[in-house]
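Entry 14: structure prediction run for Ornithine cyclodeaminase family protein. Input pasted below.
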Amino acid sequence: MSPADAVAALQDALREGFDPATDHQRIADPLANGEFLIMPSETASAAGLKVLTVTPDNPARGLERIQGLFVLFDAETLTPTHLIDGAELTALRTPAVSFAATADRLLDATDPLRVVVYGAGPQAVGHVNTLRSITTHRREIDSVIAVVRSPEGVADPGPFQSILCSGSAEALEATAAANLIICTTTARSPLFDGALVRDDAVVIAVGSHVPDARELDGGLLGRANVVVESIDVALRECGDVVMAIAENALEARSLIPMREVVTGQVKLAADKPLVFKSAGMPWQDLVIAEAAARAFERS
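Run finished. Output tokens:
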């Protein structure tokens, strides 16, 4: 399925009544050389289980950092029906979630997109590809710039017109000019000064899912519409949110569930940045896996 199809599947699930607050909780279990991520979920029409391993030392071995499998089950009999590569599903799902939450804001505007992506790995590339998929014939993309700690380490520029060094004058200038900033890093502290961000910008942060790591500072979250997948998950797992609240820069009651944005229950203020903070939830994998399985059966 295309990235745009994945975005649409997530939005359709929310509009048809699925509530992420009812989802099963992700389980993280440490291992000697990494960790298991176990993600069970169910909807009215299917059940699913994703098991991933996260192995920080794997890239140095020429192996993927994240590997695993997703099993799709029949909802009534719980019979396994499809087996899907977990890393490929994650690569499709993560940017699809980002743009399911922010597409209305991004597609309502008409000025060309100036995109800055922090990171240049698979999720950075996946977000750019998904953005191109949803904006085709709807909004022009003027520029796509990657910002990384070591530009010389990026062998393939991929979809990026230039690769800038994090913290450089050029990177800060690009960040201040961007109307879409996507953060896909393993950083544990803010990547840039949130005061640089334009009031009309969309900022997506997907790099962390632990309460003591963040990519964005509290000042940015304090002046933004902050959209999250689930308030409970954000307060438990999203360090960007947890630490901003601890600093009294953000109030938990101001968090906006993405379901309310997608269904039109909440209209976001146009004069504030839109920050979408994602940790990844099991229901998202299940929705996309089920849609992909249906497409496979039709092919």
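Notes: The chain has two domains: 3-89+283-298, 97-280. Will compare against the previous run tomorrow.
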